[in-house]
Structures are given as C-alpha cells and as structure tokens.
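for the recovery benchmark. tokens below, seq after
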C-alpha cells in the first residue's frame, strides 16, 4: 500500500480452499470520475507456503464499459527469490502479502469518465490447475499523487 495515497478502487477476492483454477476469471468493476489524472494499478496477492512455484503468470484485461479491450498482456510476477526460495513480500505465520505495481499500468490515463472492467486469469501450466496456496487476489487503483 502506498503511504497516504487513497485508493480510487480496491477489492480482494478470497479464493475457495486457497485454490485458483485456470477457468476462474476474477472481475473488478470500477468507475473513474477524473480521467485526466494519471492512475496506478496494483495487484494484491496473498499466499501461503503451499504455493508451488517462485512466480505466478497472470493475464489481465482492462476494458471500457462497452467491452473494448484497452490493455491486455501476460505478466510474470515473482513471489519468491528464485535462488534462495525465500518468500518476498511481508509475511506473518506462513502467510505472505504482496502489493505489486502493474508496470504496464503506471501513470495510466483513462480515455474518458465512466465505468471500467479489469479481469485477471492465472496462466500457470496445466499441472498447477488448480493453483494451490493462493489465499486471495485483488486489485487496487490509485490516482497518481502530484
């Protein structure tokens, strides 16, 4: 979380049994009232030590209210140090939390005022379906501080 920067939007989804299936798309609906301002997008990720990999592949889609895709990409998010295996993020009792900026949506300017949809899917290999150890996944959108 950014110090002193209020969220324009923030929502987290708890995943049933700490598992995220490839078929499950997490959808976030939010409204932008100030499209001229720059906005930053963050992923909120909480996992436990059952998580099987050092990273997580996700695919995101940012759409306007008509369903037109404004931005999309497959991203590789690092959750553990690949050499030491030490979890990154803040941890307490075997649970680790991350708030990671989406590097493609930093200082993003929306085309207009209105409703937007952000979707996230996990894109790990089939052998990780369902993806174990993922407690919740969320999205935070902040207005860039001046």
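predicted aa per position
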């Amino acid at each position: 979380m950014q110090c002193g920067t209020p969220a324009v939007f923030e929502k987290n989804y708890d995943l049933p049994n700490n598992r995220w299936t490839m078929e499950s798309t997490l959808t976030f609906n939010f409204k932008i009232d100030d499209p001229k301002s720059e906005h930053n997008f963050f992923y909120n990720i909480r996992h436990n030590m059952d998580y099987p990999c050092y990273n997580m592949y996700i695919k995101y889609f940012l759409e306007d209210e008509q369903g037109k895709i404004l931005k999309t990409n497959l991203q590789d998010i690092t959750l553990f140090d690949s050499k030491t295996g030490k979890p990154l993020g803040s941890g307490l009792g075997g649970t680790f939390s991350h708030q990671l900026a989406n590097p493609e949506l930093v200082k993003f300017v929306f085309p207009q005022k209105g409703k937007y949809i952000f979707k996230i899917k996990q894109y790990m290999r089939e052998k990780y379906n369902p993806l174990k150890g993922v407690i919740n996944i969320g999205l935070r959108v902040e207005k860039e501080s001046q």
